[in-house]
Amino acid sequence: MGLKLDSIGHIEMGQQLGRIKVTLLALAALLSAAFAPAALAQDNEAPTAQELAEGAEAVAEAVAPPAYTPMAPTLDKGMPTDPRADTEGAMFKSLTFQDQYTETGAYALWMHDYFLLPVITFISLLVLGLLLYTIVRFSRRANPQPSKTTHNTAIEVIWTILPAAILVVIAVPSMTLLARQYETPPEDAVTIKAIGYQWYWGYEYPDHGGFEVVSNMKSAEDALADGEPFQLAVDNRMVVPAGVPLRIQTTAADVIHAFSVPSLWFKQDAIPGRLNEKLLTIEEPGVYYGQCSELCGTLHGYMPIAVEALPMDEFEAWILEQGGELPGAADAEPEAPVEEATAEGASGN
């Protein structure tokens, strides 16, 4: 996995590991001291080295965060649907948008399926009916003497007011959706920076030590072996927490790219020298696939995106595995006592 860590990051990670080791040894010593009297009272024997080791291992398992395991994708979730699949409703799902897993996406899908489509269907049938009526009613055979009427006030009022009313009705949910898509991320949102390269993606985590994960498309063999769709699967996903606001920032290192994930109703341009940002909140854990949606060169079609949304504890475990740090970890470290610092200063003098 491609990571970018400076020397300071390595030193801080080593200090954190050292503190964890000291904590585990202290807990093991406390457990052995607590259980040793009871064992001596019952068996008059001191705990063996193996028993102490097992106790220390149990403490380590209790204290250590859960290990990260890549999430397996769910069929038809966060990915394009196959109209030839045997699943129920596969054909209909292929005719509309993907199922949505954000609040804004669910609203947009509702607007498309249950508002715009009925309006469009009604208008199309109305115009078709009027066209057929005109063909039959005013044909040369049915109306050999054509009418010379040039104006009809009632018809002109109707075909002016009715379309205007329809546009006003459509404008209400349209403006609501537009406003939702431009909501500002809250101050405590988790920041992830997506960087477009020719032709792969990099993901930086400024809130977690600033490391970067480099993401490339998997080969067909690897994608098939892992049960993922080819040309959408990547070796390193963009891992994010689910259920919390995310501040997705996009930029590019060379040409214009576009970070797009259809099932999350998310698309944002990545422009060199410019930092765009947008709010994203993924409602439930899962793997969601997308692609670069801006023509960026010969390998534009080989820049897939895979977003893996995890529960917060698993996301934090992934951060630690990458060598990152959790926000607030440095603030939680105990400071040196004032007396000791004063004594050291006096000895130095």
Given the structure, what is the number of helices?
8
What's the order of the H and E elements? HHHHHEEEHEEEEEEEHH
- Largest beta-sheet characterization: 5 strands, mixed
Distance linking N and C termini: 49 Å
Identify the quaternary structure here. Answer: single chain
Helix content: 40-55%
The fourth-level CATH homologous superfamily of the domain at 190-321 is Cupredoxins -  blue copper proteins
What's the number of extended β-strand segments? 10
Low-pLDDT residue intervals, each spanning 5 or more residues = 1-15, 36-44, 340-347
Keywords:
Immunoglobulin-like; five-stranded mixed sheet; 8 helices; disordered C terminus; 349 residues; disordered N terminus; alpha+beta
Give me the secondary-structure topology.
Elements: H1 7-43, H2 49-63, H3 90-95, H4 103-137, H5 153-181, E1 190-197, E2 200-204, E3 212-215, H6 220-225, E4 238-241, E5 246-252, E6 257-261, E7 266-270, E8 276-280, E9 286-292, E10 304-310, H7 312-321, H8 338-348
Parallel strand pairs: 1-5, 4-10
Antiparallel strand pairs: 1-2, 2-3, 5-8, 6-7, 6-9, 9-10
Helix pairs in contact: 1-2, 4-5
